[in-house]
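Need tokens for this chain, all 264 residues.
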Amino acid sequence: MDNDAVLAAFDRQMRRDAPSFGAAGQVERGADVVRQIGGGSGGACGGGWCGVIWSDLREETADAAIAAQITHFKALDREFEWKLYAHDRPGDLADRLRAAGFTPEPDETLMVARVEDLPTAVELPEGIRLHHVTDPADIDLLVTVHDQAFDENRTPLKEQLLTQLTEAPDTLTAVVALAGEVPVCAARMEMFPGTDFAGLWGGGTVAEWRGLGIYRALVAVRARVAAGRGFRYLQVDASDQSRPILQRLGFTPLTTTTPWVYAL
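Here are the structure tokens for all 264 residues:
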């Protein structure tokens, strides 16, 4: 895989020319900034993620562009995130975001793999079965896992996924691993026609069920679906916890990304 070429394709397809998320939100394009506006209303983007997904700024334009985004999202009463990649310009953009009142969250690693290179055999520990998310009750199972795995309230995610499942089901694949009737691991994949990349999101396992290969099995399930839909690559913003697993499966780190959050 030509890492530089794949990163350039990712920047172009999934950031600068990002597809509109339809039910889950809309993409708004400016001359030097592209932002996503999540669905719903109220703080924290209602039921969807809000933020800047691409920018091409110069030293003389960066501060004004940052101020314009703050003004825009404040008018919407929305908290938002500036998704900063290590190669974004100008080189001191992180310092400028901090000075403007943004707070960084932990770095993530953008990792990509060719779908054809990934294992698609699903191997589960005894007593675990997979359940595909197809209705609102299934969303509750997924959110229950995320609340426990990430130790935070994922209610806004629930609203987003309910809308996406109802209005744009072809863009979403989600799977829950069950031990009996208890959800212990969950993950989803977002897919948008016209792009080469399917995105892996939200892979999380309840603490006492980690280290058994369930997370790897959910990657394999999604790789199989992506292959069937004709996507060339899987991409994921990997935490420090998931990065070693993904590297062993064949994912390559391309760059890092930092979520800079502006709270109201």
